[in-house]
Task: inverse folding
């Protein structure tokens, strides 16, 4: 079995103005096999570039080491000026578990990388977050306190001996912080002011750490141990400061959302809006630094749709467009989700060539002399179209005048319809892949007994797959029948015929997929598997015919 472990690395380099220096750093990352560079996000005002790449853990730490090494060669920290806190050429280098790997394992890789940096480069290394060697070093801000300018003094303090490398100040490279953490969203909210003080006031209202409590005389109020009391902010797991960005001519609230489950992006944005409004300011937009998981924008889009009392059961691309507009992510420049969303960047477009086609190209490909796509793919597509019609009725009903009290019901139905439609669309290509695997198995050599055995096994597995895919089409399409029935009974009466056409399409999809189950079962030697598959297909086919009849009866009675 292949190693499917995947981690992300998001190093921050203290150079955001010289494209040639940035290119030299990213080029050494791209040279490492098994690593994919996803994003390079330079900032002129911060003089900092955030780079994102993913891959197998071994490949990622090799690429990270090369990048840290190159940064130490091409960046001179003694000349560095920028708005963002920093202490080294590679200021911070976090590793984030993405798939097939635990946080503890990721932290072990962080230590492996740090040990090599400290041993081979003149760069002291501190460990943070889940890779921290002591509790007081877990927080990045604590480690970075004093920044580059205070680093020489810090390295001379035994309490701040680096975790790896010699405690020697290197004026050119500074120090690096390496760690393992959950996904962090770097997010800036734009204000209609140039005042850093006012931006900080909003930041203090929002961030978890809040602000120091003061008395009527303006002095800090202390607790029994002499420590300042704090007034917590509105958002858990949010760090924030205010700053002025000369490049844009505005002040921003610069935030790190360290746990997007505690505080989603849209909640942080709204809290900034509330605070700004109380202070006579206005939020004009926002800015994402680096990449985000798709769910961050989908959740934001649905949040704003619900606030507008609109259905959330619309296409994913439209939900994300709503999020971009509502958050003002395109205020400072174009925002392309295909370049900012991790899942889109990792998407393998070669795995779904059919659904990437336009309608004409898909029809032409089906009509060509190639045996695939065939009836199985067409069945899945017809099912998706029928389900889409039921989803359309739900969305139209959600927006029908006078039906505001039913918005949640129709929105939930549309959400279900969208999920079923997307599953059926994915099965369009899955059916063709299943057919292609049979063709590949048939082409395997069969000269020796060993080759014959391998070919027979490959044919067996490929045939099972060719039966399972249309069975899945049937199951998925059948789930759309209750949606279509409810829309025929309760949906917008002006669209009842659409629910009827949807039922016709879904029943056709199930009939077509059943034919594929039967033909692929024909002659298959696994009799127990064949018996179970054909029984399932027969049962689903009977149910589909009955449910289609019930839906068409409702439609017929309504159309007079």
Result:
């Amino acid at each position: 079995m292949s190693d499917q472990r995947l981690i992300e690395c998001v190093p921050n380099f203290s150079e955001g103005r010289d494209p040639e220096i940035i290119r030299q750093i990213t080029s050494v990352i791209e040279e490492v096999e098994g690593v994919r560079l996803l994003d390079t996000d330079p900032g002129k005002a911060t003089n900092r570039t955030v780079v994102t790449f993913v891959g197998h853990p071994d490949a990622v730490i090799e690429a990270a080491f090369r990048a840290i090494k190159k940064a130490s060669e091409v960046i001179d920290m003694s000349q560095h000026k920028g708005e963002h806190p920093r202490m080294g050429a590679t200021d911070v280098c976090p590793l984030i578990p993405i798939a097939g790997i635990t946080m503890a394992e990721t932290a072990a890789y962080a230590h492996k990388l740090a040990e090599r940096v400290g041993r081979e480069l003149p760069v002291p290394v501190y460990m943070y977050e889940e890779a921290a060697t002591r509790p007081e070093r877990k927080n990045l801000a604590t480690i970075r306190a004093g920044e580059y300018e205070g680093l020489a003094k810090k390295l001379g303090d035994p309490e701040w001996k680096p975790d790896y490398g010699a405690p020697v100040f290197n004026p050119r490279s500074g120090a690096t912080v390496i760690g393992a953490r959950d996904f962090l969203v770097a997010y800036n909210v734009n204000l209609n002011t140039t005042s850093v003080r006012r931006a900080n006031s909003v930041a203090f209202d929002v961030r978890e750490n809040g602000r120091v409590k003061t008395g009527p005389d303006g002095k800090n109020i202390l607790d029994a141990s002499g420590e300042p009391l704090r007034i917590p902010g509105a958002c858990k797991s949010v760090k924030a400061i205010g700053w002025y960005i000369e490049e844009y001519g505005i002040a921003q609230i610069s935030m790190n959302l360290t746990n997007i489950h505690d505080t989603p992006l849209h909640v942080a944005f709204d809290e900034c809006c509330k605070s700004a409004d109380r202070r006579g300011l206005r939020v004009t937009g926002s800015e994402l630094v680096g990449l985000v998981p798709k769910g961050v924008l989908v959740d934001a889009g649905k949040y704003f749709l619900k606030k507008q009392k609109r259905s959330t059961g619309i296409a994913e691309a439209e939900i994300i467009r709503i999020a971009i507009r509502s958050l003002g992510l395109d205020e400072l420049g174009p925002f392309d989700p295909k370049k900012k969303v991790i899942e889109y960047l990792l998407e393998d477009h070669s795995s779904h060539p059919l659904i990437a086609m336009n309608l004409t190209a898909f029809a032409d490909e089906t009509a060509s002399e190639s045996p695939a796509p065939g009836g199985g793919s067409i069945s899945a597509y017809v099912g998706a179209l029928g389900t889409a019609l039921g989803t359309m009725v739900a969305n139209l009903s959600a927006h029908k005048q006078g039906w505001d009290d039913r918005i949640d019901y129709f929105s939930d139905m549309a959400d279900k319809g969208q999920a079923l439609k997307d599953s059926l669309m994915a099965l369009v290509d899955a059916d063709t892949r299943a057919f292609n695997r049979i063709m590949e198995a048939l082409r395997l050599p069969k000269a020796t007994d060993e080759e014959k055995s391998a070919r027979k096994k490959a044919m067996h597995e490929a045939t099972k797959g060719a039966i399972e895919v249309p069975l899945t089409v049937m199951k998925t399409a059948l789930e759309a029948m209750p949606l279509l029935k409810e829309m025929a009974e309760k949906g917008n009466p002006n669209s009842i015929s659409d629910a009827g056409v949807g039922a016709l399409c879904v029943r056709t999809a199930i009939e077509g997929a059943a034919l594929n189950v039967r033909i692929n079962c024909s002659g298959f030697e696994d009799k127990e598997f064949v018996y179970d598959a054909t029984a399932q297909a027969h049962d689903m086919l009977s149910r589909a015919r009955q449910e289609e009849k019930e839906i068409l009866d409702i439609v017929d009675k309504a159309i007079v």
Remarks:
- The chain is about 50% helix and 15% strand.
